[in-house]
Amino acid sequence: MKASKMKFGINYIDTKSPLHALNGITKFALFMAWVTVVLTTFDLRIIVGMVAIGLALLKMTGVAFRVYKPLLLGTLSVLSMNAVFMFLVAPQQGAEWIGTTTELIKLPGNYSLTQETLFYLVTVTLKYFSMFPIALVFVFTTHPTEFASSLNRIGVPYKIAYAVSLTLRYLPEVKNDFVNIMHAQQARGVDFSKNAPLMARFKGVAKILIPLIFSSLDRADEISNAMTLRGFGRNKSRTWYNYRPLANKDWLALAGITVVVGLAIYKRSVETAAIWYPF
User: Fold this and answer.
1) Count of CB atoms within 10 A of residue 84's CB?
2) CA–CA separation, 227 vs 166, rounded Å?
3) 137 touches 57 (CB < 8 A)
4) Which of 118, 51, 41 is nearest to 84 (CA)?
5) Contact 95, 116 (CB under 8 A)
6) What average pLDDT does this structure show over 181-186?
7) Listed residue (236, 262, 27) closest to 150, CA to CA
8) Taking the model in full, what pTM does it have?
């Protein structure tokens, strides 16, 4: 893989969009509510709608598509492989959940592909994918310090809030380390392109991840030592450089989020079928 293809980012990008104007707490509540709704439904109609809304919100952030395109393609690749592994482990899972069997392709043993299993795999794959756009929306539009200060103001201990802030700040550093290590391995002759065999590429990824883990641990140790030397955690409270109070639009958004989550939980409680199946 060429270095030019690694120009992506997973950090706060201020594009002055309407989503940037919302409080970090509101966007975090949206993210958690989104995950809650996704986890409580196997209704493909709702899941497809959430994918569409999530992609629309991602576009609304104003972040260029090229920034998150590699992440999008990588997520789709991982989820596709996950669907294949799910089929290999439980080839009749969909038929068992739905209760009917409509064979599409006859395969050896118990690996016949059924319409129900195919529908189930599509539903689960989109279910997982629907969380990807909203996660990027949260990262792209939420300033780490402003979000941490908001968490602290609503009662979260400032040590935990600061840990969240460091996590969000650390994402672009991890990306930079990943790219640098990959370039170093390419300089040593490691091939990450499509021309390399699949197992060789897996080994190449391992040669990136192992140094990445150790470099991350080293950086975490340095940050911990620096914070200790500066007396972090000595006082019961602290002040914040960035703080944004909840505005009326935030309260309206939070009220709407609460209603949607309540409806999703109610829908799940009254449903009799484990998965929505129209055929």
Assistant:
1) 11
2) 12
3) yes
4) 118
5) yes
6) 84
7) 27
8) 0.74
